[in-house]
Amino acid sequence: MAQLHLYLPEELAQEVRRRAYDRGLSVSAFLAELVRNQVADEWPDGYFEAVIGGWKGEALERPRSLELEKREELDVPAGHERMHQDTE
Predict the structure, then answer these.
(1) Rounded CA gap, 27 and 16, in Å?
(2) Residue 25 to residues 11, 14, 20: CA-CA distances in angstroms?
């Protein structure tokens, strides 16, 4: 395993130690986890379970969508015609 050296302001180092202790990890393991999560190209293990399962309030309901408003066509100067056909 590679060994890296890191310099931190004392206040930040104390916070890192506290958070590692709170999670039951060594400082090295805690920092390795932070780095692993930052460089990973996928969601961390348990992310969706924590986020989706984390809602404790009433069930969410999507409000009814409003009708789209009708707008008048704009006068387009010659040479600046619309590039796409109407899809209606």
Answers:
(1) 7
(2) 19, 14, 5
Between these two residues, 15 and 61, which has the higher pLDDT value? 15
Return the half-sphere exposure (C-beta side, CA atoms, 13 A cut-off) of residue 64. Answer: 2
Q: Which residues contact 26 (CB under 8 A, 6 or more apart)?
A: 20
Q: What is the rounded CA–CA span in Å between residue 6 and residue 64? A: 53
pTM metric for this prediction: 0.49
- Token pair belonging to 40: 């990973």
The pLDDT tens digits of the residues spanning 41-73 come to: 888 778 877 887 777 788 878 888 888 888 888
